[in-house]
Design goal:
Distance between the termini: 24 Å
Number of strands: 4
Low-confidence stretches: 1-6, 120-141
Radius of gyration: 15 Å
Structural class: alpha/beta
Strand order of the largest sheet: 3-2-1-4
Largest sheet: 4 strands, parallel
Shape: globular
Order of helices and strands: EHEHEHE
Length: 141
């Protein structure tokens, strides 16, 4: 197993919730866990807020004009999570009042989003996502 070294200081954590959007939960396997995932994320966010820990919510949003599409989307000729659509919206059961929103256009939350700069300026280290699915990053527990 390869190990990576970390120079992060975890004394100033932030909770990072990623891709908790309606479009990602259309898959039947994910749809079955949607309510539990949202409830768990709400509990984490409430605990973070109570402890004065910032909550950062990252979501994927694309433009219909293909200007933000990934190479795979361009290859397939199919985009998704378009601005202003219900698929791109957060799960409505999430309680994200006061969360900092970061919009991403690729699979990586730190690619060209300013998230790394945000954390660096705030002296924070993200404590998330609380889980992942193969191929995509989702804030699942």
């Amino acid at each position: 197993m390869n190990q990576t070294s970390s120079t992060s200081d975890f004394s100033n954590p932030a909770l990072l919730l990623i891709d908790l959007q309606v479009g990602f939960f259309k898959d039947p396997a994910l749809a079955r866990s949607r309510q539990q995932v949202a409830a768990n994320c709400n509990r984490l966010a409430a605990a973070a807020n109570a402890a004065g820990i910032p909550v950062i919510s990252v979501r994927t949003v694309h433009k219909e004009d293909r200007s933000t599409w990934t190479l795979k989307m361009l290859e397939d000729g199919q985009g998704y999570l378009f601005e202003g659509t219900s698929s791109a919206a957060y799960l409505p059961e999430l309680l994200l009042d006061g969360a900092i929103e970061v919009i991403k256009r690729r699979e990586r939350a730190f690619w060209n989003t300013g998230l790394g700069d945000l954390e660096h300026r705030a002296g924070r280290s993200a404590a998330g996502p609380p889980g992942q699915l193969p191929g995509d990053c989702r804030g699942l527990l």
